Structure formats: C-alpha cells, structure tokens
C-alpha cells in the first residue's frame, strides 16, 4: 500500500494498539525495514511526528523479520507487477471496500486518481455496483476480485472468463494482490489503525 508521491500525515490518530516507532527508536533490523519502505521504489509513504510510519508500515517495524518480507511483497506488486496500474488499483479498492478498511481506501483512492481511474469507477469499486470498466483487463481484474472476495474462489466459469484476459501469470498476480491487501486490512483492523486526523473514514 502506498499513499501517493510523498506526503506527511500532520496528525497521526491516537488509539492504535501499537506504539508509533520514530526513526530514533529503531534497532538495526527495524532501520533496515524503515529504509526499504521510505527509500525504496514504492514512492512516498505516510509519516508522522519523528518520522514514524502510518498505515500498515508501523506494524512492519514491530516485527522486522516478517515486515521485511511483507514490505518487499507490497513493493513487488506495486512497482514490478504486470497488471496495469488502473486494474491493480481497482482491485485494491474492491478489497478495501470489502473489508471496510478506512486507511486502505483513503490511501488507494488517491493512487487510483493519480492513475487516472474515473470517479464513477472508484464509486463502483466502493459500492460493488454500478458501471464496470470498458477496458477488458480492468474489467476482468475487478470482476475476478469481487468473486474472490465474495466466495473465496473462482468457479470454472469465473476462472475461464478471467483467464481469457489475464492468463496464468495475471491470475497468480491478482490472487496474490487480493490476499496481500486483505492481510493488510486485517492487521490494520486488529491494530486499530485509522485514517489520518482530519480525513474522512467512509465507514466510520
């Protein structure tokens, strides 16, 4: 999960179950994860006072032996994946809406806008209804993601429809993406990570 091309969260909300870890409070393993997150190819990530990381990234610092691999998977999906940016972000928004993950929606609605996703498709990803994309890859990714979220599977018809457009590699990437962002949504729910202060949570 990335939050655009670099910005600072002016008011990190209180109430998280994990304390914020600022740059000065990190051990060597945590510093390596911090550097990979903030200096890697993913672009800017939300930061708070003292350089603490907001969203899912603070949790990665608390368990760097897991967080290092988790952030690398996210960077791979975001920067080295083969799905076009608009298709990827529509799928992420569908995951965020399914899990009612305020931070995930807040961050990726902005990324989707930067990628040129029309407002009508963003709204459709949130509601689960409304127009589907005209682009066949975007449509296949969104429809397959909804099926995965609704049923936990792709039946033969859904598989065939998605496979005709995305192929084997595309479906491996898409199912990985759905699982990854679902995992982040779960962690942020458990750790009580909310949107930054002053921002609206669509499910509050």
From TrEMBL:
Residues 1-13 have a biased composition (Polar residues). The lineage of its organism: Bacteria, Bacillati, Actinomycetota, Actinomycetes, Pseudonocardiales. One of its GO terms (molecular function) is peroxiredoxin activity. This is 4-carboxymuconolactone decarboxylase. Residues 1-22 are annotated as: Disordered. Residues 70-146 form the Carboxymuconolactone decarboxylase-like domain. Gene3D superfamilies: AhpD-like. InterPro entries: AhpD-like (IPR029032), CMD-like (IPR003779).
């Amino acid at each position: 999960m990335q939050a655009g091309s670099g910005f600072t969260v002016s008011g990190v909300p209180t109430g998280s179950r994990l304390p914020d870890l600022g740059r000065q409070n990190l051990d060597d393993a945590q510093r390596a994860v911090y550097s990979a997150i903030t200096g890697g190819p993913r672009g800017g990530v939300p930061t708070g006072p003292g350089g603490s990381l907001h969203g899912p990234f603070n949790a990665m610092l608390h368990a760097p032996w897991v967080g290092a691999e988790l952030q690398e998977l996210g960077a791979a999906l975001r920067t080295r994946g083969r799905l076009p940016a608009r298709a990827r972000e529509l799928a992420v928004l569908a995951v965020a809406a399914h899990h009612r993950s305020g931070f995930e929606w807040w961050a990726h609605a902005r990324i989707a806008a930067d990628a040129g996703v029309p407002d009508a498709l963003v709204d459709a990803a949130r509601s689960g209804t409304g127009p589907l994309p005209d682009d066949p890859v975007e449509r296949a990714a969104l429809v397959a993601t909804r099926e995965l979220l609704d049923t936990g599977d792709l039946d033969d018809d859904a598989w065939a429809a998605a496979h005709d457009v995305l192929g084997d590699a595309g479906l491996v990437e898409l199912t990985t993406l759905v699982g990854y962002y679902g995992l982040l949504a779960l962690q942020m729910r458990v750790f009580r990570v909310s949107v930054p202060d002053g921002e609206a949570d669509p499910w509050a």
